[in-house]
Amino acid sequence: MDVHKLVQEMTLEEKASLCSGADFWHTKAVERLGIPQMMVSDGPHGLRKQDQSADHLGINDSIKAVCFPTAAGLACSFDRELLFRVGEALGKECQAEDVGVILGPAANIKRSPLCGRNFEYFSEDPYLSGEMAAAHIRGVQSRNVGTSLKHFAVNNQETRRMSVDARVDERTQREIYLASFEGAVKGGHPWTVMCSYNRINGTYASENPRLLTGILRDEWGFDGFTVTDWGACNDHVAGVEAGLDLEMPSSGSYNDEALVRAVREARISEAAVDRAAERILTVMYRYFEGRDRTAVFDRAAHHNLARLVARESMVLLKNDGNLLPLSASRRVAFIGPFVKRPRYQGGGSSHINASEETCAMEAASEYADVIYAQGCGTKEDRTEPELLLRAVNAAQAADVAVLFVGLPDSFESEGYDRTHMRLPDCQNELIREVLKVQRRVVVVLHNGSPVEMPWADEVPAILEAYLGGQAVGGAVADLLFGKASPCGKLAETFPLRLEDNPSYLNFPGDGDTVEYREGIYVGYRYYDKRGVNVRFPFGHGLTYTTFEYANLRLDKVQMKDTETLTASVDVTNTGRVAAKEIVQFYVSPAHAGISRPVKELRGFEKVYLEPGETKTVTVELPPRAFAYYETAIADWFVEPGAYAVLAAASSADVRAQARVEIEATRRLPVHVHENTTFGDALKIPGAAEILKPFTDGIGAMLGGENSEALGESTREMAAAMLRDLPLRAAFAFAGDKADRGKLPAIVAALNDASKRAQA
Ligand code: BGC
Q: pTM of the entire structure?
C-alpha cells in the first residue's frame, strides 16, 4: 500500500479521525477508502484480548491465553533467545486472534521495590532491561505483529501515576531511565511506543516534544507510531504537535474535532496531522499485508514453553549444605498458601485469563509422594491456628519442608504501590513455627518484587520463583527435584530492609511531585558505592554445580575512546551436573574523575556447560560501555584514563579483572570566564603559558623558591588552593606580578586556546 498517497486522498477530518481510537481496542476505519480497523490488545506476558466488555484494569474477562512468567522473572533468565521465543509465541497467538499490536514490553526501571508494577518491569539495570525488551520485541515482530514499548518514560511508581511530575536531572534520565528504552528501540525496532501517564520535569509525556520526537525519533531512529497510555492524553493538539500520533482509547469525536479546528485556526499545521496519520497507517498496513489468515497455535506447546521459560528464570538464592535438589526417597511436605493455588501473575491490565494452571502439588506427583498442609489463609493476613498446627505437624513428620509463600494479589498490583516490603505476617509466622520443628526448610517465593526475609539466615534453601506464569508449579517441581539445574540470576537487588533503598526518602514523592534525588545511584549502583550490605545482590543466583572463571583477556591494553574492546573469559563447570552460567561483564572506572558508579553491567552471556566442560565467553565493549552522559556537550563521553573490566558471577562476586587505558580523541570544551578555576583552565593545552604571570605571583606568595621548606600539608594546601582558585581571585594573592586589567585578554586567550584544542 502506498500509504503516503493514501493520506493525500484523505480529508482533514478523516486524517484527524485516525489519530484517536474507535473504541477501547481498535483504531478507526475509513470506510470510504476501504481502510479497516486494527485491533490492539494488552500483553506483555500473554494475550489479553477482550471480546466483550473492555477495560484497562484486567477486570472483565478476556479470551483464554497462555500466561508466561512476568517480566520480573523473565529478566532473571538473562537469556535473549528465550525472550525471543516468548515473544514469538505471543506473536503467533496474536496472528491467530487477529491482533495487530500487543501492548508491551514495559522497560521502566525498578527505582523502588515498592512500585506496584515492578512485576511487569525487567530490572533496575538499564542495559539488562533494554536487552530483554529488545529480544521480546524481536520475537513478537518476527510473526509480523507489532509491539508497543511502554511506558515512555520515567514512570516508576503507581501513586498518582496520571498526574505526578517526575523531576529528574538530565544525566540520570539518559544513563538510567531512558537508556533502558534506548536499548529496546535500537535493538528491537518496536512498531509502536506507548507514552506514560506522568509528567517529566513539568511536561506530560504525551505532549513532550523532546522525548517523543527529539530523543525517540531524531536520536534513536524510531520510525513507528507513538500511542498514549490509555487515558494519558492531556491536550491532543499539543500531543500531535509534539510527535504523539494515536490517542487511546476513544475520546468520542471530541479530540478529532479539536484537531480539525486547530488546523483551521492555524494553531497546528495540517502537515503535523498528515505525519501522524501516515505513521499510523504505515504500521496498520504492515500488519494487514503480512497477515497470516491461516495462523493457528498449539496451546499445549505454549504451555510447555511457559514451563521451560519459568524454569530458566527462577533464581536459587540460597542452598546451604546442598539441601536441594531433593531426592525422591525423602519424605517431603509441601506447605503454604501457594502450593495448590500458586500466585503466578499480577493484577491490572496485564492480567491473563490463563488457559490452564499447574500447581506444584500436581507437578510433584511426577517425582515423589508429597504431603500437604496449607499453613495459612491465601488472601487475608491472619494466622489461623488450626492451619498452622497442621502445617507444623506435617513439617515434623517429613524429612524436608518446602514452604510456598509470597505476596498475595492485594499486596502488589497495577494502580497502587506497596507501602512496605514485608510478606504477610501470617506467612512469616508460619516459617518461624516450622523452623522450630524442622531445620531442613526450603522457601519458594511467589512475588513480583523483593520482600524482606527476617528468617533468611535460618532457612537453608530459598528459591525465588517470581510470578512464574501458568506452568509455574511444573517449573518449581523440576528444579526442586533436580530434573533441571536452576539458572536464573537476580535482575534486581534484594535489600535487607526497605529503608536501605536509595529512593526511600523520596518515594513516592509529595503530592504531585516526586524528586529523583538519588540520581544515577539506582539499585546496585547505589549499594555498591555506599558499601551497603544487601540480602541478595544484583546478578546473584546459584545452581547445582560450581563454575570457575579463568584467563580473562582483553584484545588491547590501550585504546582510543572511539574503539571497541573485546573481552573473553574461560568458564568451566567444576561440579557434577550440567547447568547454565550467566557470565556478567562490568566496567569500572579506575581513575579519578566524574562521580560514577563503582561498576556498571555492560555485557553478559549465558552458557550451557556439561560437567568438566569449558567454554570461552566473549563480549564486545563499544565506546558507550565506558561512557557517561556529559550534559555540557549533550552527548556520551569517555573520560580518558584507566578502566577495569570485570568478569563476574554476580555484582558482588567478581572472579577476574583486567585493565585498559583509554586515550582521548576528544576533549570537553572548557568555556573560560573570570570565575573559572585555575585547575579547570590549566586543562586547556597551552594554558600554563598564558597563566604564567598569575601562577608565578601566587608561587611567590606561597614561599617562592623557598617553597621546598614548607611542610607537606602546607604544600598540599597550597596546591589545592591554586587548583580551586577562580582566575579573578588571583589578584588578591598574585601581588604586583599580575595586572587585573589584563584579565579579559587572558580569558579571551584561554578561550581561543580551548577552541583550537577542540578543532
Ligand atoms: C496501562 C497500560 C495498558 C493500558 C491498556 C493502562 O492503564 O498502564 O500498561 O497497556 O492500560 O490496558
A: 0.96
